[in-house]
Amino acid sequence: MPSEPHAADSETVPRSIGRVLDLLEIVLGEPRNLTAAAQAAGLTPTTALRHLRALEARGYVRRDDANTYAAGPTIRRLAAALRDGGPLDRLIAAAQPRLDELALATGESAYLAIGDGRVATYVARAESERAIRHVGWIGQTVTLEGTAVGAAFHTPGRCVTRTGAVEPDITAISFGLPPIGPLAAAISLIGPSHRLDTATQARHESALTTAATELAFGLGLHHDEELAS
Q1: Confidence of residue 126 (pLDDT cuts 50, 70, 90)
Q2: In whole angstroms, what is the distance from residue 11 CA to residue 191 CA?
């Protein structure tokens, strides 16, 4: 579920610019056609089309043959330029083996998410090998309010569990890492709620806590320090 338009930005961001940014974030989070993008942004199709055409002209979004909007060449070029071996790259590289181990040990999909104070974005994953499993979400943004990952960002160092916060019948268990510069980070286990009873949740929380603590230690992160850039 992509994040909602940022109504609080209206005091500092001109309304027209905010609308364009809302649309950009929406289609980057999940490719959508005009109707779906307009509805998610709270805009009329005419207004949304005008803004999407401007973004398309600059290469920030592209429109395929099915009239679905998604990330365009400009945004991909900028994203590649930012992958410079900095703190985020190091975090993803260090987290991936832990995610793989968690998915194998628990049988549920494991994710790494980062937050900017407004939304959480999933940047790495290891999928469960089970036939029924949680999939996707790389590049997806979700709201912080009411979600496990949002609570984990606010209370690093402990597990937080939520059911049905983003998707029905899905349970997420998240563990917040110490801050990484201006970003929050968390590791999550996500799976169908029917498999995550109280006893299973307790086991998964233990495995998640161990993996996240070892990851933080390996990166030299502590809850009163930040990962240096």
Answers
A1: very high
A2: 38
CA atoms within a 13 Å half-sphere pointing along the CA-CB vector of 144: 19
Give the other-Cβ count within 10 Å of 159's Cβ: 24
Q: Indicate the DSSP class of residue 63.
A: E
How many angstroms separate the CA atoms of 214 and 98, rounded?
9
pLDDT of 120 above 60 = yes
Query: What's the whole-number mean pLDDT along residues 71-99?
Result: 80
Strand partners of residue 110: 126, 189
Q: What is the pLDDT of residues 170-219, one digit of tens each?
A: 999 999 998 877 778 999 999 999 999 999 999 999 999 999 999 999 88
Contacts with 130 (C-beta within 8 Å, 6 or more apart), sequence order: 107, 108
φ/ψ (deg, to 5) at 171: -110, 135
For the four alpha carbons of 119, 31, 102 and 172, in that order, the dihedral sign comes to: positive
pLDDT given at position 164: 94
Q: Are 81 and 74 within 8 A, CB to CB?
A: no
Can you list the domains of the chain with their CATH numbers?
Answer: 7-80 (1.10.10.10), 84-218 (3.30.450.40)
